[in-house]
Amino acid sequence: MTFLKPTRRLFLGGALSTAGARLLMPTRARAQTAVALQLSWLHSVQFGGSYIAQDKAYWADAGLEVSLLPGGPNAPVEPPVVAGTALVGISAADYTAAAVNQGAPFKIIGVAMQKNPFAIASLPENPVNSPADLVGKKIGMALANTPVLEALCSINDVDIEQIEVVPTQYDAAPLVQGQVDCLLCWATDLPVAMESQGIESVTMLLADHGYAVHSQTYIATEDSLANRRDQLVALMKGEVMGWQDYHADPEAAAALTVEMFPDAGLDLATQTLQAARQVPLMFSALTEAEGFGWFTDETVAANVETLALLGKPVSPELWDRSILEEVHG
Amino acid sequence: MTTRRPALSRDPAPRAAARSLPRGSGPLLVLLLWEALARATASGFIIAAPSQIVHHLATHAELLLRALGTTGWAALRGFVWGNLAGVLLALAAVLVPRGERLLSTLALLVFCLPLVATGPILRVLYGPGAGPQVTLAALAVYYTTFLPVLVGLRAAPQGWFDLVRSYGRGRMTELREVRLPAALPYLVAGLQIAAPAAFLGAMVGEFTGAERGLGVLTVRALRALDLPATWSIAGLAAAVSMLAFAAVGWLGRRLDLAPPEVLLAPPVVRGRRAWSGLAEAALALGVTLLVWKGSMAVFGLPRFFARRPEDVWSYLVTAPGAGAQRQRLFAALGETLVLAVPGYLAGLLLGAGLALALALRPRLAGAVIPLSIALRSIPIVATAPLIVWALGRGATGSIAVVATMIFFPTLIACQHGLARTPRAVLDLFAVYDASPLLRAQLPAMLPAFFASARMAIPAAILAVTTAEWLATGRGIGALLATVASTSDYGMLWSAIALIGLASVLAHALLASVERRILSRTSAEQLAR
């Protein structure tokens, strides 16, 4: 008798949950359209809001079955979006501008990072607190980012010839080893890695020194905007809801990320730190007033100006707010 | 007695002490030194201590095993497909000798395609999943199997072919009875070279956007400055590759493959007209362009990132600004060649030299071979920081990276070539107490050496472009990295076309040197 009870309860529970699932089936099965969202990097809390949308079925409830495609060092976002493998890609305004100049039919339909995450990281004993401090320093950076440094120098009247560029990739070791004085990296990436390893660092956000480039932008093709509007609206709606939850509790987002991707080699402490660091980049007075992902004609104008300095001239037409207007409207 | 005792004990004592060290103390000493060095340099984040690696392996065992399973399975599938393709290509080249040039050229060109171009295309073609990883693993091995097997299929004495023909039998009998048995030992060499390459290919394939695997963990560990993790993964990759290498070698010995001994093939006199070479080149170019354009059209790849031959032509020749673009590309190629050529030569000499050294001192193999496999199986993004730290960002570091990448296939191929020295010849030298190295073993090694010199051309280009991307920031490698991140696919495909052209030209140059030398030492290789 003593062992029969729990067994029966388990059985009952099982039967009930099956029944529950049956009851839920109709809503879940309602015309689930499969679409893909191409992320710009390996899975991490950088995309925490999307994971929440997935986990809380914000997309499923809207009839969308979204697969989240991870990026990587050799996984540019633009090709799968052009090819139609992914409905939406996570890019950045400068990458998108370059692609559009090469003939890609993209529009930016939302902006996750209001402030660009690019930063100069240095060590406290030899800090870079302002662009002027860069003079005479050795900076480690991926060569592909040379235009970023050029734009920063041009905005702040710093002679780029006075800075020695050392090509580095992927890690903070050259800074720690003293091969370079500072690194051009994301504020949410290498400085977080260093802090996790117990190394204190100084970060100077480029966005605080006139570098206005939207980052982690949502891009879609003109064709999708014309023919797959419903899917775009549903996808962005899920994103907005996911990121609102993220804003309310970044720590929970970090925990969810680690739980959802046990094979990604993520570490909860680092993810929590990164989750907190990206909040001020993604949420501002503007998103407070208008909602997550929003952009205005003024922020677009500032982007167009910086992008011209980067050698990527674009027109404000690259940004299309119609999807966000439907989402928030 | 008492006066002699100290004299006696003085001499043997140190030796006795050395002998009294327990067996296996050498590796222990190395471990201790390693640990001490790692601890002394801990603040520089350069090397991980053995104790840290063991701790990481122990605390992350499950994660690492799952990742190893994922990557290993993709590598295994790529290994099978790639080697199958390599063998079939070699068979086709022998059965249809007229088509050999064309096949070799196409095989070389596909092998030259850099990851920055193939990665996005494969990901779009396959979608999520392991498809790109398997394909890249296969692409990493087919060429290094194709070449040795092709050499092997020809490594039979002319008399045997004459015998087959005198019975009125055709090519198929020749293939079954003579060529295939002759090729098997060379296949073993190819498979051994392929083992670490397939694993590396699968890991690098994960860079194109994968959920899990050792490649994913490598990127994560490098970025997180997590040295114990990086070194654990590198150790795992090296260990698996060594096991696969040993298993293939064991299987080869187990099957006791006895190749025919090639003695004194008559020198080949070939009356080739100049125009036939040109015609072959034109045909190869035409077919290449057709395959390039056709495959992109068949798969419906968007022009945005899959540029056609005519797009490259317009980008480099007819479009406005083509002159400046051409200049940028050729300047980068120049910078690359300055590093690639010395690295290529250094790697070849190192590989062949080591093979000869191991022939003289076989006991060294126990130390040299595992280290070589390790260097070949760990992704260059993981080893490059160490090389850069040790040798700097200048020419030395890049040349070292190139040499590191190509000396291993050369070493293995040459070793197998050396083993082909006819027993009777070695016995003859032994009778006269003469060293067979220069007059018997070196000539026996030459076909294999030239095969590895061919393999090394694309490998050198791959290595130098990676070093440029990661460390020096110059040349084609840096150009590829920059244009890939700015969607400048016109420049990307132009660079690929130029790299392919340069490889084919280098290949042709090498082939003419090879013909000249082998016509004297190994004429059977040139008989068609």
Q: Topology of this protein?
A:
The complex is a heterodimer of chains A (329) and B (528).
Chain A: H1 4-29, E1 33-38, H2 48-55, E2 64-69, H3 78-83, E3 88-91, H4 93-101, E4 106-113, E5 118-122, E6 138-141, H5 146-155, E7 164-167, H6 173-176, E8 182-186, H7 190-196, E9 202-205, E10 215-221, H8 222-227, H9 229-248, H10 250-260, H11 268-282, H12 285-290, H13 297-309, H14 322-328
Parallel strand pairs in A: 1-2, 1-3, 6-7, 6-8
Antiparallel strand pairs in A: 3-10, 4-10, 5-8, 5-9
Helix pairs in contact in A: 2-9, 2-10, 9-10, 9-14, 10-11
Chain B: H1 4-10, H2 12-20, H3 25-40, H4 50-59, H5 61-95, H6 100-112, H7 115-126, H8 131-154, H9 158-166, H10 171-205, H11 214-223, H12 227-254, H13 274-298, H14 309-318, H15 322-360, H16 365-377, H17 380-391, H18 395-418, H19 423-431, H20 437-472, H21 475-485, H22 489-521
Helix pairs in contact in B: 4-12, 5-6, 5-8, 5-10, 6-8, 6-13, 6-22, 7-8, 8-10, 8-20, 10-12, 10-16, 10-18, 11-12, 12-16, 14-15, 14-22, 15-18, 15-20, 15-21, 16-18, 17-18, 17-20, 18-20, 20-21, 20-22, 21-22
